[in-house]
Amino acid sequence: MTAHLMTGAQAAGLNKVKPKASKDDRQMLVFVLIIGCYLLVALAFPLYAILSKSFENSAGEFVGLANYAEYFGTPALLYSIQNSLTISLITMVITVSIAFVLAYALHRSCMPFKGFFKVVMLVPILVPSLLPGIALVYLFGRQGLIPQLLFGHEIYGPIGIVIAEVFYTLPHALIIIMTALSIADARLYEATVALRTSKVRTFFTVTLPGARYGLISSAFVVFTLVITDFGVPKVIGGNYNVLATDIYKQVIGQQNFQMGAVVSLILLLPAALAFFIDRAVQKKQVAALSARAVPLVPMPSKGFDRIMLAYAGLVSVFVLGILATCQYAALVEFYPYNLSLGLTNYQFDLMDGGGWDSFGNSIRLGLYTAIIGTAIIFLGAYMVEKSKGFIPARSAFHFLAMMPMAVPGMVLGLAYIFFFNAPNNPLNFVYHTMAILVISTVTHFYTVSHLTAVTALKQMDVEFESVAASLKTPFYRTFRRVTVPICLPAIFDISIYLFVNAMTTVSAVVFLYGPHTNLASVAVLNMDDAGDIAPAAAMGMMIFYVNAGVRLFHGLVSKYVLKRTQAWRYR
Amino acid sequence: MQQNKGENPYLKITDLTKMFGDFVALDSISLEVYEGEFICFLGPSGCGKTTLLRAIAGLDIQTYGRVEQDGRDVSNLSASERDFGIVFQSYALFPNLTIYKNVAYGLENAKLPKKQIDDRVQELLALVGMSDQADKYPAQLSGGQQQRISLARALAISPGLLLLDEPLSALDAKVRLMLRHEIKDLQRKLGVTTIMVTHDQEEALTMADRIVVMNDGVIEQVGTPTEIYHEPVTAFVADFIGTMNFLEARVASPTQIRIGELSINCLDVPGKEGDKITVSIRPEDVVVQDASDNRLEATIEHIEFLGAYVRAELSSGEMSDHHFFADFSANQVRRTDLKQGMKLEVGLPKRSLRLYSA
Questions:
Q1: Which of B18, B45, B138, B246 is the most exposed place for a label (fewest CB within 10 A)?
Q2: Single residue among A316, A342, A368 that ends a domain in this structure
Q3: Residue B62 main-chain phi, psi, to 5 deg
Q4: Chain A, 141-170: which have a CB under 8 Å from a chain B CB?
Q5: Minimal Cα distance from A477: which residue of B?
Q6: Which residues of A touch B86 (CB under 8 A)?
Q7: pLDDT tens digits for A148-199?
Q8: Residue A68, burial from CB neighbour count under 10 angstroms (0-12, 13-18, 19+)
Q9: B14 → chain A, closest CA residue
Q10: Distance between CA A184 and CA A204 in Å, rounded?
Q11: Cβ B63–A16 below 8 Å, yes or no?
C-alpha cells in the first residue's frame, strides 16, 4: 500500500465523478436540514444572543468589555468563582471515591442484595436537586432533628452544599464507573494469580488502570453537574454565593440582565472545558474497549463481602435517609411545634408557587418532552449517522448536538429570554408558553439522548442500508421496519430519561415559565423561597412518586413490549 | 463459463480510480465482464478488491472513471438506482424479520401482488434448500443457513448483477466447501453475472470463470484459473497463487540463464546477458525421476509430511546452495524411501520455468 504521487487518471486529466444524489439522499438531506434548523434556533441563536448581550448596556448599546470590567471589579462577584470551583472540586473527590468503592462492591464482590442497592442508588436521579437541600435543613438546621452531628458547624453554606451535591451526583458517577468496571477482562486476573501477584498489587496494576477512563469521566461529569447546579446552593447555600445562584440573583433579583449574561459566560467556561476534556478522554476509551474480553466473575470471600455489604448499606442509609426526611417533613403538620402527621402540606393551592396546576403542567411537560424530544433526537441521530455525503452539514449537526452538554441550564434559560423575548423575533409568541418549556428541556438534555441513539445505531450492521439500497427500498421503509424495531430499547431509554429530567429540572425553566405554565420543580423552589419548606418538600416528593411510578411502569411496559416484539433477540 | 469476447461486455469499467484523501486505493482500473460470467476479485487484504466491488455497486462511488452496466453509464448513480443484488460476509439479514420476510423484503417494495410475492419467496427458499425454515428468525439459523437466506434475498428481485463480498469468510471450513459448490451451481443454473470478492485463492480457483488478481490498487492479471495458476504474468501472482520457488539468476543467452555455477535452459529469456532475473518453478513441477532437461544433483535438507504428499527442502552445491522445495507423491516416497541428507538427481523442466525481470 504505497501512496502514489499521481494516479493515471489524474495524469490523463479525467474529470472527477460527481455522485448524483438519489431520492433517498435528497429526502434525508431535508430532514438533516430541518433538525439542524431546530438546533440552530433552539441552541446556537440563543447562545449568540447571550454572548452579544454581555457586550451591551441596559439600553442595548454596544459597550465592549465594560460589563466584564465591572464584573471583575466587584469582589463579591469574584468570590463566587472561587466558591463554585471549591465546592465542585470537593464534591468531585468525595462522590467519585464513594461511587468507586460502591461500584467495586456491586461488580467485584459477592455481597447479597445487589439488585436492591442498584435501585436505591437511582433514587437521586428521580428528585429535583432542591430536595436534598430541604432534607438537610430538616436534619441539621437550627431546629433540625440531629444538628449536634455537625459539632456546631453551620449547615447553610459549603458543608450543606457538598453533602447535598454528593447525594445529587452519586448515581451519575456510579453508572459511569460501574460500566468501566464491568468491562474487566478475567484473563488479566488469571494472569496475576498465575504470577502470584498480591491482591493489593493486582488492584493497583490491573483494576485501577482498567477503570481509569471511567474514573476520569465520572470526575468531569460530577464537576460539571455541581458547578452548573442551581437547586442545591439556592436552598442550602445561605450566604455562600456561587456562579449559578449569582445568575439567578442578577436576573430575577436585580433585573440586571447584562450582568447575568456576563456571569453566564463565565460559568460556561469551566463547564465547556470539562466537557471537551471528557470527550477527548472518552474517545481513547473506545480504543481500549475493542478487544474481546472474557467477563470477570467475582469469587465469594466472606470477610470482604461483609465489609462491602456494610459499606453499601451505609450509603443506602444516607440516600434513603435524605428521602425519608423529606417525606417526614412533608407529612408533619407544623414542624417542630406540631409533630402529628397529616396531609396539610399537600394543599398546594393554598400556597404561592403554582398549586396543583404546576404539578399537572410538569407531567404535561414530561410527556411532551419525552414524545417530541425522542422523535426529534432519534430521527436526527439516524439522519446524521446514515445519510451519505453533505459532510460539512453533518459535522456541523453533530457539533450542535454535542453542545447542550456543555451549556449549563441557567445559561440556556437566560439565553432563551434574550432570544425569544426579543420584540423583533417572529418566534416571540412562544415566550411563556408550554412550547418554550418543551423546546428548552429537549435542548437542555439533547446530548445524552443523542449519544444513546448514536450508540444504538452504530451497533447495527452497517450493511443494512447497503442491502436496502440494492433492494430499491426507500430509507423510510427500512427505518420503520428494521431500524426502529431494533433500536426500541434505546428509544425507550431516551424517552424515560427525557421525562424524568423534565420533571426534576429547575435551572433552564426557572427563567421561562409563565403565569399559566408554572412547574412543580419551580414550585418547590418558590415555596422554599417563601419559607413554606414543608409544602416544598411535599411537592418534591410528588415529583419523586411520579418519576418512580413512571420508571416502574416504563420497566414493566418495556419488558412486556420487548418480550412481544423482540422475540428475535433470543434463540 | 463462456467468454463471449465478440459480444459487448455486460459490465465495463474504464480508468476507475478511488482516492481516500491522498491515498490511492484503486489506480486506473479497467475491466470488462461478460454476461453470465463468474468473476472473482482475488488479492491480499488492503489490495482494493472490496473498494472496487463497492464502486461497482455505487455504495462508495469512485473518484475518477466510468462504470457502464448493460450499456448504461451508471458512474455517478447511487446504489438504489443501479441493478444489483449483494451478499455480505456478515450476512446483514434483518434480525427482527423472519426468514420469509427477509426474502420478501425487496419484493414487497416492488408492490407486487401478495400471491406473486409468496410464490417467488417459496421458489427462492426451495432454491437454497431452506423451505422449512421460513418462520424462523435469523438468529435461530447457523451461519451457513443465514448466508443461503442472504443469497435468496439478493436474488429475489432478479438482479442483473450479483455481488458477493467475501460471502464465505465467516463460515467453518466444511460449510464453506459445501456452500462453494451450492453458490457455483446456483449461479450456473440462473446464469446471473456474478462478481465475488475473496482473499481465498482456493475459492477463486474452484469457483471463478475468470480471476482478477489485484495488489496495491492495481490489477496484476486477469485470466482463467488455469492461466493464473500455470502462467502467472508477474512475480506477485506467481507468489500469491499456490506455492512457488523463486531463485535469483542471471541472463546467459536468449535461451539460457545461470544460477550460481549452473546453466539452465529456458524457452524465452528477456533482457540482455548479465541482467539479473528471477526464475520460478512450482514444487510439484520439479521432476524427481526420469528428469530429461536441466538435471542437477540435490541434497534433501528437510522433509515435511503433508498427508497426500511430502514436501522436501532441497539444496544443491551446483546452484551455490540455493534452497528450493519439491513435492513427492506418496507413491514416490514409498518407492524411493526419502530420508533427510539423501542425495538425488532432480530436473527443472524448461516448460515449467517462468522468468521475471528483477
A1: B45
A2: A342
A3: -65, 160
A4: none
A5: B109
A6: 466-467, 470
A7: 887 878 889 999 999 999 999 999 999 989 888 877 777 888 888 889 888 8
A8: middle
A9: A9
A10: 14
A11: yes
Around Cβ A524, how many Cβ atoms within 10 Å?
A: 35
Please state, in angstroms and rounded to a whole number, the distance separating the CA atoms of residues A135 and A534: 10
Residue keyed to cell 528437510: B302
Domain that holds residue A243: 66-342
Binning chain B into helix, strand and coil, the percentages to the nearest 5 are 30, 35, 35
Rg (CA), chain B: 25
Question: Can you tell me the mean pLDDT for A1-22?
Answer: 66
The 10 Å Cβ neighbour count of residue A290 is 7
CB contact under 8 A, A461 and B92: yes
Whether residues A328 and A206 fall in one domain: yes
Q: Which helix (H) or strand (E) holds B90?
A: none
Does B17 contact A10 at a Cβ distance shorter than 8 Å? Answer: yes
Is residue A204 classed exposed, middle or buried when 0-12, 13-18 and 19+ CB atoms within 10 A define those classes?
A: exposed
Chain B residues with CB-CB distance to A568 below 8 A: 95-97, 137-139
Q: What residue type is assigned to position B283 of the chain?
A: P
The SS3 assignment for A123 reads helix
A146 and A29 within one domain: no
Residues of B in contact with A481 (CB under 8 A): 94, 97
Question: What sign for the dihedral angle of Cα A67, A68, A73, A75?
Answer: positive
Rounded Cα distance, A237 and A239, in Å: 6
Cβ B78–A22 below 8 Å, yes or no?
Answer: yes
The predicted structure's pLDDT at residue A481: 92
* Cα(B348)–Cα(B283) distance, integer angstroms: 10
Does A358 share its domain with A231? no
pLDDT tens digits, one per residue of A461-499: 889 999 999 999 999 999 999 999 989 889 999 999 999
Task: For B201-223, write each residue's pLDDT tens digit.
Answer: 999 999 999 999 999 999 999 99
**Measuring CA to CA, which residue among A505, A394, A472, A399 is closest to residue A128?**
A505
Same-domain status, A267 and A377:
no
Domain boundary among A342, A374, A404: A342
Q: Of A110-114, A397-401, A538-542, B48-52, which range is least confident? A: A397-401
| DSSP assigned state of A480 | I
Q: Which of A2, A5, A7 is best to mutate for the B interface (most B CBs within 10 A)?
A: A7
Q: In this structure, what is the dihedral angle of CA atoms B348, B350, B351, B355, given to the nearest 10 degrees?
A: 100
pLDDT score at A3: 43
Task: Please give the grid coordinates belonging to residue B3.
Answer: 467468454
Same domain, residue pair A47 and A192: no
CATH number of the domain where residue A135 is located = 1.10.3720.10
A356 and A329 belong to one structural domain = no
Domain assignment of residue A553, yes or no: yes
CB nearest A464 (choices: B82, B92, B156): B92
Assess: ipTM above 0.90: no
Which range among A3-7, A421-425, A505-509, B173-177 shows the weakest confidence by mean pLDDT? Answer: A3-7
CA distance A458 to chain B (A): 14
User: What's the CATH code, domain B11-238?
Assistant: 3.40.50.300
Question: Is the residue at A549 inside a domain?
Answer: yes
Alpha-carbon distance B236 to B252, whole Å?
24
The span from the CA of B290 to the CA of B292, in Å, is: 6
Q: Which element (helix H / strand E) includes B303? A: strand B295-305
User: B243-284+291-357 domain in CATH 2.40.50.100?
Assistant: yes
Rounded Cα distance between B174 and B190, Å, is 25
CA distance A423 to B340: 98
Q: Report phi then psi at A376, rounded to 5.
A: -60, -50
Confidence of residue A343 (pLDDT cuts 50, 70, 90): confident
Distance (Å, whole) CA A322 – CA A541 = 11
Q: What angle do CA A257, A260, A266 make, to 5 degrees?
A: 150
